């Protein structure tokens, strides 16, 4: 529904991780696009999906917390598609998916 503001991560096993402004952090099969897993974080995902290893375990995570141009519609209470023009006008519906934008969060999962 909303454009992706962060990058996607593709693993060696062909799983793609990415997030969306409606708060979902997802894993999909790179070949079929089939959704394999999802988790709703506290605010819209704005960061790139990332992975790292520590002591033999692999982790995947992302940053969330709407701000910048995507948050203009929420912060200023814009209600018309022509307010702020461009993509921000289409983001007036973000308030249905996100509480007032404020803090950000780092969310990490163990694989």
Sum this structure up briefly:
With 111 residues, this protein is mainly β. The protein contains 2 helices and 7 strands. It has helices at 68-75, 87-90, and strands spanning 9-10, 15-19, 24-29, 35-40, 50-54, 57-64, 105-110.
Main traits of this protein?
111 residues, mainly beta, four-stranded antiparallel β-sheet, three-stranded antiparallel β-sheet, 2 helices
Give average pLDDT, whole number: 82
H/E series, N to C?
A: EEEEEEHHE
Provide the spatial order of strands within the biggest beta sheet.
1-2-3-4
The amount of beta strand, in percent, is 25-35%
- Residue ranges: pLDDT <50 for 5 or more in a row? none
Radius of gyration: 15 Å
Biggest sheet overview: 4 strands, antiparallel
Please state the structural category: mainly beta
Percent range of helical residues = 10-25%
Write down the overall geometry: elongated
Tally of individual domains? 1
Note the gap between the termini: 28 Å
Count all strands and give the number: 7
Count of helices?
2
Task: Write up this protein.
The structure is a single chain. With 111 residues, the chain is mainly beta. The protein has one domain (9-110). Helix content is 11%, strand content 34%. It has two helices and seven strands; from the N terminus they run ββββββααβ. The strands form two sheets. A four-stranded antiparallel beta sheet has the order 1-2-3-4, with no helix packed on it. A three-stranded antiparallel beta sheet has the order 5-6-7, with no helix packed on it. β2 (15-19) and β3 form a beta hairpin.
């Amino acid at each position: 529904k909303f454009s992706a503001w962060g990058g996607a991560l593709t693993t060696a096993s062909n799983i793609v991780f990415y997030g969306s402004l409606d708060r979902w952090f997802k894993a999909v099969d790179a070949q079929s696009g089939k959704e394999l897993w999802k988790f709703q974080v506290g605010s819209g995902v704005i960061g790139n999906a990332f992975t790292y290893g520590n002591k033999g375990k692999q982790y995947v995570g992302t940053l969330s917390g709407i701000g910048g141009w995507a948050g203009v519609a929420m912060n200023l209470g814009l209600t018309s598609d022509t307010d702020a023009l461009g993509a921000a006008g289409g983001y007036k519906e973000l308030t249905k998916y996100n509480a007032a934008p404020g803090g950000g969060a780092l969310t990490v999962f163990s694989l």
